[in-house]
Every structure is written in C-alpha cells, then in structure tokens.
Amino acid sequence: MSARDDLARRVVEFLAEHDPDTTDRVEFLRARYDAGLAWVAFPEGHGGLGLSRSLQAEVDRLFAEAGAPDNNPRANGIGLGMAAPTILAFGTEEQKERFLKPLWTGEEIWCQLFSEPGAGSDLAALATRAVRDEASGEWVVNGQKVWTSGAQNARFAILVARTDVDVPKHRGMTYFLADMTDPGVDVRPLRQVTGEAEFNEVFLSDVRIPDTQRLGDEGQGWQVANFTLNNERVAIGGRALPREGGMVGIVSQTWRDRPEARTPELHDRLLRSWVEAEVARLTGVRLRQKLAQGVPGPEGAAMKLSFARLNQQLSGLELELLGEDGLRYSDWTMVRPEHVDFTGRDAGYRYLRAKGNSIEGGTSEILRNIVAERVLGLPAEARGDKDVPFKELPR
Amino acid sequence: MTDLDLLPTDIEEDLRASVRGVLDRRCGPDTVAAMYDGDRAVVEPLWRAMAVELGLAGLLVPESLGGSGATAREAAAVMEELGRACAPVPFLTSAVIATTSLLPSGDELLGALAAGERTGALVVPFSTAPDAPLPDLAEGGTVRSVAGALEADVLLVPAGGTLRVVDATEAGVEPVVSLDMSRQLADVTVPAGAGRAVEGDGEAAARAALLAGAALLASEQHGVASWCLRETIGYVGQRRQFGRVVGGFQALKHRLADLFAETEQAAATAAYAAAVLAAEDADLPIATAVAQSWCSEVAVHAAEEALQLHGGVGMTWEYPVHLYLKRAKADQIALGTPGAHRARLATLVDLPGGTA
C-alpha cells in the first residue's frame, strides 16, 4: 500500500472513531495529534507518522472534506510555521512533549521575540540580555523587542537574547522559549501605517526563564534563529495557493468586474503580474517538492523576495484600477486584528499593508545578500563587527 | 491542474548527463562562434552523433513507430542542455516540431525521422506563435525566416489546411544572415503542388507542434539563463577592481540575487510546461503562454546582465557571452513574443482588454 493510501485509510479510521459533528473541537484536535495526523512529517509520538512533508496537504484536505474542525492556523502562524519546526529540530524530548501538542491544537498561541529597535535587519546586534542567576539556575532577561505580531494573544514566545558579551556578536546569543504570562512581560500595541495595531512592542523586565526552556546550547542562538528564519521565509513566500490565489485573484476579479476602468497600459501590467504570480506559485510547488526531501535552506529567501514584490505591484495596480474609489479608505480606527491577513479589508489597506512584505521576515535587501552569499557563493560585504567582542562594539 | 512533479527523475538526469557529455566534448563556444563566419561543417556530424547515438531524434516518437517513446519531460532536459551550450543542432525544429506535427497521422516518415536517417522542418516563420496565422503554400510561394530548413532534407509545408511532405531538393532553401547563427534561418520557396499530402487536419497538427515547441523552448531559455548566471557569478567572483573582488559589491550581488530568483522561477515554469505537455493535460495552452512570457524575458535579462557584468570583455567576440545574447534574443521572438503570449493568455484566463 502506498504511503498516500495508508494515510487515507488512517484518516477514515480516525473519523470513524471521532465523529467531527459530535466530538468536542479541542478533544478532536488532541486526538488527531495523538493519532499522528497533525504534522504527518513529524515523528510518531509528536503529532506525526514520519511521512513525507508532501503528504500534509493531502491529510489536511481529507479532514476538511469531512467537515472536521481545523486548528485555525491563521491565528497561530508563528507557532506553526516557525516555533514548531525549531522545537522539533533543537528541542529536548521534554520540550517537545510539553510544547508541541498545545501549539498544534491552538490552545497555546506563540509569538516571536527577535527584532529590537536597534537590531532589525542586523539581528545579531540584539542587546536584550539574559543573565544566569547562579542560585536558581534560571535566566533573567531584560530588554525590549519590537514588531511582535500577535504578542497580545500569545501564551509563549520564541526569544533570542544575548548571554555573552565577551565574544563576537554572532556567538554570544542563546535561544529561549519564554512564558508571555510572566509578570515582567509588558506588551504594548504598536500602531502601524494601516491604522491598526497588528504588531507590538514587548518590554522584558527581570523575566525569569528556567534553564529547561533554553532551546539548543548556550551560545547557539544564531544557528537556531537562522533555522527559524529559513522556515519563516518559506512560510511567508512559499505558501500553497491555487492559481489566481491571494492578491492576484482579488485584482483579477476587480478587472473583470470593472470593464469601464480597463486601459491598455493597466492591461499589460495586470497580465505581467498575473504571469509572475503564476510563476511564483509554480516555484512554490517546486520548492515544497524539494523540501519534502529536506529542510528549508536559503532558497526560501528568493521566494519571499518575489512574494513581496508581487504583492506590492498588484496592490498598487488595484488602487489605480479603482480610480475615484481608490481614493477612499475603509476605516482608520485602531483595531487589534486576531490574525494577519495580507489580503483583508479594502484595496487601500492592501496597498499599505503590502509595504510591510519587503520588511517583515527579513528585508528584501538582506534577503538579496543572503541569496548572493549563501546560495551563489559571492563574497560577503567587508564589515568591522564580526570578530570584535560584542561589548566593544560602538552602539 | 494537479501538482505535477516538477523535479527531474533519474532517467531525465541520466539523459541530461549524456547530452552534456557530448556537448562538452564536441560543441564548445569556439565551435558555435565559427557559425558566424560561415563554418557550418560541424553541425551535420554533431547532430548525427546526438540523433543516432543518444537517440534524440526519436525521443518523442512512440516505440511502435521506431522511436524511444520518451515524454516531453526528457525532451525538456535535452532542450535545457542545448540551451546551456547554445548548441547548433536541429533538435527543436526536427525532433520536436516537425516530428510532433506528424504524430497525429502516424505518417511513415516518422520512422526515418526517429532513426535520425532524415531530418525535417516545418515551413513557417520561426516567429510564428501557436495561434498565429500559418502560411499557405497551396499555390506555392516563399516563407521567410524558417528555422531548421538548412539542416532538413524533408520539409513539412502547410498547404490548404493540410501538411505536405516535400523533399528539400524540390524546394529552394536560401540561407539568410541571422541574428542567431547557432540556429540559422532560411527562406524557403516551394513550388505549387510539390510533394505529397499527410493524412488528417494539417493545420491542427501544425498548431499542436508549435504549441509543443513553445512549451519546450522554455527549457532551452532556462538553460541559456542558467549558463549566463553561472558564468557571471564565476566572473565577478574572480575579477578584481578597486582592490577587491567585484562580486563583493552589494549593487552587483543584489542584481545577481534577483537574477537567481528569476532563473529559479524559470526552472519551475519550464518544468511545469514540460510536465503538462507530457501528461497531455488540458492546461497546456495556459502553461505554455505563462512559460513563454516568463522564460523568454528571463533568458534575455540573464544574457544582458551577463554582458553588462562582464564589462568590456562581455562586448568582445572572443568571449562567449555574445552567443547567448543572440540566442536569447532570437528565442524571445521565436514561436511568439512574450507580448503575443500574454495576449493569448488574456483570452485563456478571462482577463480581456478594453473594448475601446
């Protein structure tokens, strides 16, 4: 029996034992995790069956067709896309046992405490300190993070902090799993260009993290964070969409609905963008087929580059196409959205929100450097901060 | 429109390695550059070796008709390697386009084409898009800028809705000075009523052949772009100016990173077009329009960047970049320009232009 058939049989058997109509939603999701039908590529005992990643879409489809509840993946994108694969790759058995299941079911939402006001693109410049309290063995964390999406809803965070200032900046960082309910954690909304507050500033004051929530070795934070970021870029740029999915579908529909707005120039731009969107979609398909055989490498950066450019190109085109309606905006009231929706609300929102696509998850400039250096093997920029102890760097 | 496998199989990789091996040994840049000075002596023996020894001529011909019954996926792997070498062999024009135009009829000529004993060409301007009007030579006449005609000993001539098989000796084949001398064009003059008619709807067969050719041309364009990208990375990684390797300058790194992204996208797009063609999937017209729109432009962009980033050396005859620029630009026009393919796409995906 092929892996695909075997998987389908398992789903049928599972549904026979857990009727989606009568089983409590969370109970259903927990049972699905226990049956290895959550992340099928994860090992048995941790939500999976050790199958190819390429089968995930199939299992999700089978559950959706049966009307089964999902884990509202949009509400926990960072948990599912970034925290989970990193915990799987670097976590201890105890950490996997503790964190993966409630993460997958959505009972615990995750956020990411990486960027800082002085360390955005230059992540290794981060200054948030984690100092070990020799008495208790706990880590005491102080600092400020920024651009934290979903922090107001998050139960846990993946956190990178500096644990050694006597070594060069890339070597002195350590990766933690932080409890967002700790009294030292202060989350403040950060209002953005769209008017809403999707992001936050997070202030960390004497936050105590037990050593059992250190992920990876002390000083290994840069490597672990890079693993997370490669997954993030794939999650942002390489999502499986149908043809004409996402922004290109919205603009194409607007085009069909408004024959009076069509001009040859807009037509040419629309068709070029349509082609590019389809090409990006196919590249995502191919990338996921490659990933089914391994872990995300820096190639995901190229996907994210084109995703950002396309979204900006298309959302700008849509406003022009809308003419006088493009001059209006739905609502400037500050709201706190439950999840990030690039294509949500109206055309003006989409135009403004898309501007963030070339900044979040690595700016397009940094991603080009990553592609040039790590994929193409071109020389790194000359820089003066790589071999200098962090404490001696001018800041 | 399912998610077809876009990664190469072991069989495709083996074939690719064989083709590359032959090209590495027998078809270096000097060989190709010699075409521009009128030396075409290499083409015949090179094509014979590839057509017969590697079985490339019969790749798309079913085994029952004397071919190897491979699919468009294998043909795409070959096209990519031919693009990477700017190879001057008539694989596209004979083994893909002429051969495909005969497949619906199962014409007896297929056996000779598959065996590499004869080489064919479809008599249309090389710029003809799959849905553009075809020439009609029922009353005889001349078709300009035909690719593959110089190498062909048998011509497939559109005439009154049929295809006619005309021996090249019965036609006038006049070589023309071509932008891309590695795929030199000819003006072909055919007398009225020459040759014999192939059974079936010749117009439909010719269009299907042009569509298949356009789908697979994307792989050649990906090959051209890959060569340009790799050579340029190698060059800027060695060339020193201002006391450092120029490939370390961010302005160049960013351009090459963008080119890498475009080329990876071309790889996926060309692979999809070939996979759709191989699967006889109904998505072929859209897949081909997308692939031709994208891969044509990427190949030209890659060649233009290669020339620019090689600096003065890129402008010289001695250095092979010019061969790829000429191939890329000619390929952009071949089988329909990107604009023509986007216009076709607009109809296929219901994005009509204005009515004014």
3D architecture notes:
The complex is a heterodimer of chains A (395) and B (356). With 395 residues, chain A is of the alpha+beta class. Helices cover 41% and strands 12% of the residues of chain A. In chain A, the strands form two sheets. In chain A, strands 1-4-5-8 form a four-stranded mixed β-sheet. A four-stranded antiparallel β-sheet of chain A has the order 2-3-7-6, with no helix packed on it. The longest helix of chain A is centred in the last third of the chain and has 28 residues, at 264-291. Chain A has eleven helices and eight strands. Chain A is globular, with a radius of gyration of 22 Å. Chain B has 356 residues and is of the alpha+beta class. Chain B contains eleven helices and nine strands. In chain B, strands 1-3-4-7 form a four-stranded mixed β-sheet. In chain B, α7 runs antiparallel to α8. The model of chain B has no long low-confidence stretch (mean pLDDT 96). Chain A binds chain B through residues 243-244, 252, 255-256, 259, 262-264, 267-268, 270-272, 274-276, 278-280, 282-283, 285-287, 289-290, 299, 302-303, 305-306, 365, 367-369, 371-373, 375-382, and chain B through 1, 3, 5-7, 233, 236-237, 244-245, 247-248, 250, 252-254, 256-258, 260-261, 264-269, 271-272, 290, 293-294, 342-343, 345-346, 349-355.
